[in-house]
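Title: Prediction job returns without error message
Component: structure pipeline
Severity: low
Priority: P3
Assignee: unassigned

Description:
Job completed but the reporter wants confirmation the result is attached to the right record. Sequence as submitted:
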Amino acid sequence: MVIATFLVFLTLPAHADIIGKPRVIDGDTIHMAGERIRLHGIDAPDAKQICHDRDDKEWHCGEDATFALARFIEFHWITCRGDTRDRYGRLIAVCYAGPYDLNAKMVLVGWALAHRRYSRDYVDAEAETRQARVGMWRGEFVPPWEWRKGKL
C-alpha cells in the first residue's frame, strides 16, 4: 500500500491549476478553493491606501483597485496557475478569466504596478499605462510597496 501511494504521488504534477469563483481581497489578492492567492508580478494599492488626483484631492485608490479586480472577475470562474508561495503562505499565481490574464489587465488599466522586485513580466504594460495616465496614473500616488512601509 505504501508503494502504491508513493507511485501515485510521483505522477502528480509539480503544480495544478486552481479553478473556481474567487472572493476578491484587494487589487492583487483573492481567495479561492481554500487558498489565498497573490497575483504574480504586480502590486496594487492596499484597500485602505489613499492617492491624490490632478487637483490634489484625495481619493481611495486602494478601494478602486479592489473594485476593478472584482469587476474583471464578476461572475466568471477563473483559473490560477502557480507553484510558489510567498512568506505569508499565499500561492503566487497568474490568474485568467477565460483567455485574459487578470494580472496584466490590472496593470494595463492602471490599478496595479509591475512589481519589479519579483518579476519584469508587466513592465512594458506599466510604461504604456503610465503614458496614457489612466487609473492611478491620473494623479499622484505612493507605490504600494512604499506605502506599506509607512503603514506597517
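Comment from assignee: result matches the submitted record. The longest strand covers residues 78-85.
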